[in-house]
Design brief:
The chain is mainly alpha-helical and about 400 residues long. It is built from 15 helices and 3 strands. A 3-stranded antiparallel sheet has the order 2-1-3. A hairpin with a 5-residue loop joins strand 1 and strand 2. Helix 7 runs parallel beside helix 15, helix 10 runs antiparallel to helix 11 and helix 10 runs antiparallel to helix 15.
Length: about 400
């Protein structure tokens, strides 16, 4: 037996007047069907006493974010159900019940309710920009107009799966050095707070002058003990502030160009941005999104402001009637290979497939670069950790030989 629940609703009658009330049903879709049969246009349907089940969140900290992996899974499942002949509302209802992300479940439910009131899928998704990126919304709009929504959803799923795979490779390569660095920091702090003071007390009781390295270590220990809590407060405050300002225009304009100029990692960041640009642009063009609109959206998804500025300038050139590949040659951020392959794609009428080939090439380049970086960083981090901890131990044991003389 399905559980009945009470739902509050707001509707418009045939004269356009607003009305509200409650109904008992198994799901919001049943409520919407009943209201439509009564001649009403549903505006909102919410379960009563839902506020008792809401999670408490702290402003600025409790906002949940939908992961790209969840969007990829939902897109592929959605495409499969649409291709199998399920209605849009039925497919959305199933998705809302089996999606693991609570935030995505909530948004899909709102999209489904919005569609029940007569809106299209793309319009309903566009009301939730924090969940559905512009790329996904515009591709769904193109799929609705062209009548191939299932194919578009499969392209979205493939695009996001490739993006998730790319991010996973970069994260896996960076995990080891980050973990080693954190362990080194924790070890140094632990020695300064707990081990150095014990040795310092022993040296003081025996008298004599400490070697310079040991004196520096003792001073650092005393300083850290005195301002330890201040460091914690500053660290937490700095993390919060950085989370709020890292997306601002001033910070992005300073940090993003700097990323591309880094000795080793700059090349990696450029390849990641180029892969993302080619994949997103190729996917949108294959779905029938107009080139100017596609460039406008892709500029915001590259992940680097240098590449975004170049795409904006290329967009202006295309608007004036120029080809797409030719203006790219004026921007050093686009390698000659990318420009030449895109030019060939334009000449042969297969630019979308050529862009996907470029994206696959740079995906392989990113994988090879991250593997070589991992192989290089691992011994360097081990040497770094050994040098830091070893120098501290040497500084601590240097006075011990002198203490033997003091004891005699």
């Amino acid at each position: 037996m399905a559980t009945m629940a009470t739902f509050e609703y707001k509707v418009r009658d045939r004269s356009g007047s607003m009305k509200s009330g409650t109904l008992e049903a198994e799901s919001p879709s049943q409520v919407a069907q009943k209201l439509k049969s009564m001649g009403y246009a549903p505006i909102s349907i919410t379960k009563t006493n839902a506020g008792m089940n809401k999670e408490l969140t702290i402003p600025g900290f409790g906002k949940k974010k939908v992961k790209l992996k969840d969007l990829a899974i939902v897109s592929r499942q959605f495409a499969t159900m649409i291709n199998s002949g399920l209605s849009l509302l039925r497919a959305l209802n199933i998705l809302s019940e089996q999606t693991e992300s609570k935030e995505l479940t909530r948004v899909i439910t709102e999209v489904r309710n919005d569609i029940e009131t007569g809106n299209s899928l793309s319009v309903s998704m566009g009301k939730h920009p924090e969940c559905f990126p512009p790329l996904m919304v515009n591709m769904c709009r193109a799929g609705e107009v062209g009548g191939f929504l299932d194919g578009v959803l499969l392209q979205i799923a493939a695009n996001y799966e490739a993006e998730v795979k790319l991010r996973g490779k970069v994260k896996s390569a960076m995990t080891y050095p980050v973990v080693v660095f954190v362990i080194a920091i924790v070890a140094v702090i632990g020695m300064l707070l707990f081990i150095v003071p014990v040795f310092a007390g022993l040296f003081t009781s025996l008298g004599g002058k400490l070697p310079l390295p040991t004196q520096i270590l003792v001073v650092l220990s005393d300083f850290l003990k005195s301002y330890f809590y201040m460091f914690i407060i500053v660290g937490i405050g700095g993390t919060v502030v950085w989370g709020k300002v890292k997306r601002t225009e001033q910070v992005v304009n300073f940090v993003d160009p700097l990323k591309l100029k880094l000795p080793v990692f700059g090349n990696l960041f450029q390849k990641i941005a180029l892969s993302r640009f080619c994949r997103n642009l190729g996917t949108m063009m294959h779905s029938g999104v107009p080139i100017l609109q596609a460039l406008d959206i892709v500029a915001d998804t590259t992940g680097n402001v240098v590449l975004a500025r170049a795409v904006r300038e290329v967009q202006d050139s295309v608007r004036q009637g120029e080809a797409l590949a030719a203006p790219l040659a004026n921007h050093p951020v686009f390698p000659p290979m990318v420009v030449q392959m895109m030019s060939v794609g334009e000449d042969t009428g297969a630019l979308d497939s050529m862009l996907h080939k470029i994206a696959e090439f740079y995906d392989q380049e990113v994988e090879a670069t991250t593997e070589s970086l991992t192989a290089l960083i691992e011994p360097l981090m081990i040497a770094f950790m050994g040098a830091v901890i070893g120098s501290m131990i040497v500084a601590l044991y240097m006075p011990i030989f002198k203490n033997f003389e003091l004891i005699k």
